[in-house]
Design brief:
This protein has two domains: 7-263, outer membrane lipoprotein receptor (LolB), chain A (Clam); 271-312. Helices cover 24% and strands 35% of the residues. It starts with 6 loop residues before the first helix and ends with a helix. The chain has helices at 7-13, 19-28, 112-128, 270-311; strands spanning 33-42, 50-57, 60-66, 87-91, 94-99, 102-106, 140-142, 145-149, 161-169, 172-178, 183-188, 200-205, 213-224, 245-250, 253-258, 261-267. The longest helix has 42 residues, at 270-311. It has a 16-stranded mixed β-sheet, covered by helices on one side. Strand 14 and strand 15 form a beta hairpin. By secondary structure, it is of the alpha+beta class. It has four helices and 16 strands.
Length: 312
């Protein structure tokens, strides 16, 4: 599947334009990213950074959390299981998640897999916008000032747009102030990444020094492409074929794929379940009432029998 790059994007990844122009182009018209690896760390804890790897092309994406030393390009198998159980994505209308060696998939937009996918998309968006709380591809520039659609979740009382300004020094954007979200992001650059892509984003409260950071995002690797295989975002390609399991969720039904056909695995019918519960309650209630009514009669019978014996 071939994609058309703009001339500026081509120059951006060939390191032929300034870092500032490349930075703006990346946020305004993000390229299709074949692979991006990054680390997110909260400055409020001493925990290790969370490592992620993903890919994105328009609405299609996937993101996986991984541990140091994992081979991200090897098939998942019993001898190569994920070190951290988080791997979600979207492929066309299909929303999916990999758990162990099983792909859970759905085309519904409101179940738990769709929700986890939306969260993964937000994490990935945070990396490709370098910590600016806006949606990649919506940035509009007027000099060094920008406006963009805000990324969710949007706090109460905040607008649906983000506006701000970048500070440029020696040809590099070293800081972005987002006035409408009260956030300041500091940027560092290295030569190991495409022009305009910061290697580190340090996210702080507005006008706070970078030493008072709230979070950091380190871009470890970024590869862009204009050529895709049709199955790049398919979850099946990540698992060794001999071990691949597929479970599909549709409405209240759960199916397992066997021999390329869907077999009903479980059926969740709330009305039927409620009906069963109600029947059980009626039966239990009947026996309880019967017992309570019969108990005094039995006691009276035994009492009369004992009195009769004593008289005789």
């Amino acid at each position: 599947m071939a994609l058309q790059w703009s001339p500026l994007q081509t120059k951006c990844f060939a390191q032929e334009i300034s870092a500032v122009d490349a930075f703006k182009e990346f946020l305004s018209r993000p390229p299709s990213i074949q692979e991006i690896s990054f680390a997110m760390k909260s400055c409020a804890t001493t925990n290790d950074a969370a490592l992620y790897s993903g890919s994105i092309n328009g609405p299609d994406f996937f993101i996986r959390r991984y541990l140091p030393g994992e081979d991200l390009h090897a098939f998942l198998s019993p001898s190569n299981l994920m070190g951290f159980p988080y791997f979600v994505g979207t492929f066309g209308e299909k929303r999916w998640e990999i758990s162990g060696l099983v792909v859970h998939e759905t085309e519904e937009a409101t179940n738990v897999f769709a929700s986890r996918g939306q969260n993964g998309r937000r994490i990935l968006n945070g990396a490709v916008t370098f910590g600016i709380p806006a949606i990649a591809g919506t940035f509009k520039w007027n000099g060094n000032r920008f406006t963009a659609e805000a990324s969710g979740p949007i706090p109460d009382g905040f607008p649906n747009t983000v506006s701000g300004e970048i500070t440029v020094s020696n040809g590099y954007p070293i800081k972005a102030d987002c006035q409408t979200r009260h956030v300041t992001i500091y940027f560092d650059f290295t030569n190991s990444l495409p022009a305009g892509v910061p290697s580190l984003a340090v996210i702080c409260g507005q006008n706070f020094p970078r030493e008072k950071c709230a979070q950091t995002i380190q871009i470890i690797r970024l590869l862009a492409t204009s050529e895709w295989s049709e199955t790049h975002f398919s979850p099946y390609r990540h698992i060794a074929t001999n071990y691949l399991g597929i479970t599909r969720y549709a409405g209240t039904n759960q199916y397992v794929v066997k021999n390329n056909t869907y077999a009903l695995l479980k059926q969740f019918d709330r009305r039927a379940a409620t009906s069963v519960v109600n029947r059980k309650r009626l039966i239990i209630g009947f026996f309880v009432v019967t017992f309570l009514v019969a108990l005094p009669l039995v006691v009276l019978f035994l009492h009369n029998k004992r009195t009769h014996r004593e008289k005789s």
